[in-house]
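Our consortium's second objective concerns turning raw sequence data into structural hypotheses that experimental partners can test. To show how far this objective has progressed, the report includes one record in full. It was chosen at random from the queue rather than selected for favorable results. The single chain below, 259 residues long, was entered without modification.
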Amino acid sequence: MPAARGGVQAAAECPSPAPASKVILTVGDSITEGATMAGSVSPSYRAELGRLLTEACIPHAFAVAAVGGTTCGYWTSRMAGLMAQHQPDVVLIACGTNDRLDNKTSAQVSAFEGVYRGLFDTVLDADPDVIAFPAWVQYSAGRPSAGCTTPPGPSPSWLPASEARVNDAIYRAMRVIDEFGQRVPGWIDYQSIPEGYLDQCGVHPTQGGYDVMGRLAYNTIAPHLVTVPAADLPCGLTGRRPGGVAPNWTPCEQMNLNP
């Protein structure tokens, strides 16, 4: 049985009849939306994630709820409606880049944690069978560029420090993750995407960066959708927590990302 790119079984060899298709709702800001340097919108990380899911014989359909410039709180009043509209099997939430926390008080950071946790409470209350994944946000480059034309414009210098506090807050909000059992199986870790995968704005991924995101998302969610041998996970890092090291990180450019 020949293996497809990345060591994942090819779709042509999938069993018949195929399992039921999974609806995957992706929620977030311009990064989830797919903003590019040219100001256009791409499939974001869903292109690579979808390819890998297909090769792993996991039928799926994506629903997208993403608006550039939004904070996590933007989705608070909208999440219940999104769940009713799309009836997803899986929800991926990636927000926080636009939540400026570098200059916030402890009380304000705690409020952000409550907002973030509330999103998951809403998702899990809407459907007893849905599973949901939080995500640590990628780090922006924190450098202005005169050539940057994509909102939110040149990367503000405060972004990396804010994103560090956001990731710590996300961890605190979800560290009781075990109480959800397999309904919130783990985090998607975007925080170690190398700077070389960001456009010259220093905020949005390049197409290669979106491919990296897709692989990191796949590493986290695929084992919970179908039995996938660990050796078949194509790219990424494991075991990292904010402020710690990334012991098993291998740069994706060394993993035949685009052979």
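The partners drew two points from this record. The beta strands are 22-28, 60-66, 90-94, 131-133, 135-136, 188-189. Residues 106-126 form the longest helix (21 residues). Both points have been shared with the crystallography group to help prioritize constructs.
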